[in-house]
Design goal:
single chain; alpha+beta; PH-domain like; 4-stranded antiparallel sheet; elongated
C-alpha cells in the first residue's frame, strides 16, 4: 500500500513537535548507525579470520594467500558499503559515499523533494518491510533505513513532502543488532581458540 501526500489545502503542514521550520530546512548529514557498522565489520572478521590459517593447517587445495587477498577485497567492499551517508536540506535528499567509493563502485543518488510523490512499501525475503521513494517519473529510490537518527529523517521527509510516515519504522531494532553483536563476540572467542590450537600444531580431524 502506498503512502501518499496529505491534502494540505491552504494550510501548511504541521511541523513535528520540538522542531521549527528553520531546523528542518538546515542541512543535515545522517550516517549509518555505529552499532550496525561495528557489528557487521566484527561479524565479517569473525567469519573469515580463521580461514587462511585453517587452509594451511589442513593442506586445503586453495592457497592461503588466495584466501587472504579475496577476504581482504571483501572487507574493503563491506567497509565501502558501510560508508553510506544521507544528506538532506531544504531542496533534496541525497545518498552519497566518499569519493573513493564513488570512483570504483557506488555513486549514490539524489532526489528533489518536489519530485517525490509517494512511499512504496515492499516486503523483504526475511519478513521485514523496506520503503521506496516513488518519483514523478516513476523511478524508485530506496529509503535508507539503517542510519542513526532515522526518526528525524522520517520527520523531515514528512515535513518536506507531506507524505504520511506514521507507519514507517526502521528495518531492524537496535536490540536485534545487540544480540547479533553478542553472538559475534562469542564467535570471535572461538576463533581465538581455533587459531591458538592451530598455532600449537595440533592436527585437525576432517569430518
Amino acid at each position: 500500500m502506498f503512502s501518499h501526500r496529505r491534502n494540505s489545502s491552504s494550510t501548511e503542514l504541521s511541523l513535528p513537535s520540538g522542531q521549527s521550520a528553520s531546523e528542518l530546512d538546515s542541512p543535515r548529514v545522517f550516517r549509518l548507525s555505529p552499532l550496525i557498522r561495528i557489528t557487521l565489520l566484527l561479524l565479517y572478521v569473525a567469519l573469515t579470520l580463521p580461514l587462511p590459517i585453517l587452509a594451511e593447517v589442513t593442506a586445503a587445495p586453495v592457497p592461503p594467500w588466495t584466501l587472504v587477498v579475496g577476504l581482504g577485497l571483501g572487507a574493503v567492499a563491506l567497509y565501502a558499503a558501510l560508508t553510506e551517508r544521507v544528506l538532506v536540506d531544504d531542496q533534496q535528499i541525497q545518498v552519497t559515499y566518499p569519493s573513493w567509493v564513488r570512483l570504483f563502485w557506488r555513486r549514490g543518488w539524489s532526489l528533489p523533494w518536489t519530485e517525490i510523490q509517494a512511499l512504496k512499501p515492499r516486503s523483504t525475503g526475511q519478513g521485514g518491510i523496506v520503503y521506496y521513494f516513488l518519483s514523478r517519473s516513476g523511478e524508485a529510490y530506496l529509503l535508507p533505513m539503517r542510519i542513526a537518527g532515522f526518526a528525524e529523517l522520517v520527520r523531515r521527509v514528512e515535513a518536506k513532502t507531506g507524505i504520511d510516515t506514521r507507519d514507517v519504522r526502521p528495518l531492524a531494532q537496535p536490540w536485534m543488532y545487540l544480540i547479533l553483536l553478542g553472538f559475534t563476540l562469542l564467535l570471535l572467542a572461538i576463533d581465538v581458540w581455533t587459531i591458538s590450537t592451530a598455532a600449537q600444531g595440533i592436527p585437525f580431524v576432517a569430518s
